[in-house]
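I'll show a typical protein example:
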Amino acid sequence: MESNIEKAVGQAQRAIEDIKILEHKVAHLTGICQVFYDMLKETKGFSDEELMARVSEKMNLDPVSGEETVNMCDACNRPLGKRNKKCLYCGKLQPIRSVFDQM
């Protein structure tokens, strides 16, 4: 019979494997983003500053500090969770602003 320690070791090993897979995926996606970033600079003439401003806007980052900002509910003006489609305080369904809000 497997002991609690053996179970924990097995779970830890699986977690390490999962982390390695995720690290690989992040590296792959980072490379893809770099390709798109370079294509936008080359084909559309965007500057690094323009692209970074867009990234900051989409990631809800303060342009000065680089810290994450919080979305507020359109109805009650209270903070929303990152992925909440409905306000936890007043229950208002939040508008879809982009295709990514549907994910």
